[in-house]
């Protein structure tokens, strides 16, 4: 059972951590490259602000973005802004998301995200939590995958494992941190072909495209190649 109220509280806490960290940056550091190819830290911050507004659109029954081109143009427009403007936009857009999430609503309804993807409204707060946590890491300012809340890491591993489940281009794979296990890849009656073992941070980093998987132990074949998110 998804507890959207709990997840909204987790989004708020993650956003506060992000705002404190961004508040320590200066204008020059915002223009420096992030860990995402082709994006500065300003691009990441602009995306986070516009994503909050986009998820408000989703919860209120509007298209998430006018178009992919408009989404990209908004990020490019907002990326060069000074850090104080970025910070204010992050704070204000996050507040709008929290206010929308706190409004009475049917959280069991189905909503539409980008590219025709649908989900339960109750999972939208978790999706926002993912954006805030992973993009905080992407800024490259001292917040690492190992710093993520344990609950978030476990849930995001499960979410991504489910996302790749049934994919014919991913071999049947068992993921484990030595205590917990998840299954992903195409279905088979013969059990997993590959077992991937590692720390929760390394498993998440690989699944989310943030790490190569070099730190993972692989048995039964090579490390599977995952499709882009």
UniProtKB/TrEMBL annotation:
Residues 11-139 form the Mycothiol-dependent maleylpyruvate isomerase metal-binding domain. InterPro entries: DinB/YfiT-like, Maleyloyr_isom, MDMPI_C-term_domain, MDMPI_metal-binding, SCP2_sterol-bd_dom_sf. Residues 147-227 form the MDMPI C-terminal domain. Residues 170-195 are annotated as: Disordered. Keywords: Isomerase. The keyword Nucleus does not apply. SUPFAM superfamilies: DinB/YfiT-like putative metalloenzymes, SCP-like. It comes from the Bacteria. GO terms for molecular function: isomerase activity. This is Maleylpyruvate isomerase family mycothiol-dependent enzyme. It comes from Streptomyces coeruleorubidus.
């Amino acid at each position: 059972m998804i507890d959207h109220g709990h997840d909204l509280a987790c989004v708020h806490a993650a956003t506060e951590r992000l705002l404190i960290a961004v508040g320590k940056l200066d204008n020059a550091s915002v223009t420096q490259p992030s860990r995402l190819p082709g994006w500065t830290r300003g691009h990441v911050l602009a995306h986070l602000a516009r994503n909050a507004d986009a998820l408000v659109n989703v919860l209120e029954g509007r298209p998430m973005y006018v178009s992919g081109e408009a989404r990209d143009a908004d990020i490019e427009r907002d990326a060069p802004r000074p850090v104080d403007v970025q910070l204010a936009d992050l704070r204000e857009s996050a507040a709008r998301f929290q206010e929308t999430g706190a409004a009475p609503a049917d959280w069991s309804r189905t909503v539409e995200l980008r590219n025709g993807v649908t989900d339960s409204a109750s999972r939208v707060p978790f999706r926002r939590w993912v954006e805030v946590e992973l993009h905080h890491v992407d800024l490259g300012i001292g917040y690492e995958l190992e710093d993520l809340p344990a609950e978030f890491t476990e849930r995001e591993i499960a979410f991504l494992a489910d996302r790749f489940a049934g994919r014919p281009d991913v071999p049947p794979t068992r993921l484990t941190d030595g205590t917990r296990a998840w299954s992903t890849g195409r279905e088979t009656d013969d059990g997993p072909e590959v077992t991937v073992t590692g720390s929760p941070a390394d498993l998440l980093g690989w699944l989310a495209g943030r790490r190569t998987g070099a730190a993972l132990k692989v048995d039964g074949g090579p490390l599977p190649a995952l499709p882009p998110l």
